[in-house]
Specification:
Elements: H1 20-51, H2 54-79, H3 95-105, H4 108-120, E1 126-132, E2 138-144, E3 154-160, H5 167-170, H6 174-181, H7 187-195, H8 198-208
Antiparallel strand pairs: 1-2, 1-3
Helix pairs in contact: 1-2, 3-4, 3-7
Domain Manganese/iron superoxide dismutase N-terminal: 10-81
Cofactor: Mn(2+)
Catalytic activity: 2 superoxide + 2 H(+) = H2O2 + O2
């Protein structure tokens, strides 16, 4: 069964850009709820499989998708973050990725603007992602609610745009949250994901949880 990552950063480590209060609630309450609900749904699904109850198995799929996606997305998100004074928070930690970003968007600033605009375009709850497709090309995409990235793309950087990720600190100032989250992106992790494959990422993810 999935469990929360034991390697989460200290809750104060991302200040002043993400407050310790947000990090504590986000990890110990919101992410924990996804894990608990996923575990319960998987147990119910196993029971339904053993009983041959196909209707129950089908009925549980939305619950598994929502909570499983929430678990995956948050596990990836924690690994995406690092204290702003870490060398890993510098784009120099991702030379191959930033070179490809420059080729794709013309400059890092253009990429940052495009990703920021995409994040701020999300209506309601969701996530914004920088992904690598199966041909190695970079794209920006968004997913609704807790839908995970699917289709074989490698999620390189993900940003949580649910209100619980920023509201206690930024209130309705989503633009300020988006601007500041760039200060705590773990570019070393992003570089590793860019150079790896979809299978590499999720094998690593399974080992982390």
């Amino acid at each position: 069964m999935p469990s929360l990552s034991a390697r989460l950063l200290d809750h104060q480590a991302l200040e002043p850009y993400i407050s310790s209060q947000i990090m504590e609630l986000h990890h110990s309450k919101h992410h924990a709820a996804y894990v608990n609900n996923l575990n319960n749904a998987l147990l119910s699904h196993a029971t339904a499989v053993n009983a041959g109850d196909i209707a129950a198995q089908i009925a549980l799929q939305p619950l598994i998708k929502f909570n499983g996606g929430g678990h995956i997305n948050h596990a990836l998100f924690w690994e995406n973050l690092v204290p702003s004074d870490s060398p890993d928070a510098k784009t120099e930690a991702a030379p191959s990725l930033t070179d490809e970003i420059a080729k794709t968007w013309g400059s890092f600033d253009s990429f940052k603007g495009a990703l920021s605009a995409s994040l701020l375009s999300i209506q309601g709850s969701g996530w914004g992602w920088l992904v690598k497709d199966q041909a190695g090309r970079l794209h920006i995409l968004t997913t609704k609610d807790q839908d995970p990235v699917v289709g074989g793309e490698v999620p390189i950087i993900g940003v949580d745009m649910w209100e619980h990720a920023y509201y206690l600190q930024y209130l309705n100032g989503k633009a300020a949250y988006v601007e500041n989250v760039f200060n705590v992106i773990n570019w070393k992790t992003a570089e590793k994901r860019f150079l790896g494959t979809h299978d590499d990422l999720f094998t690593s993810l399974r080992g982390m949880l």
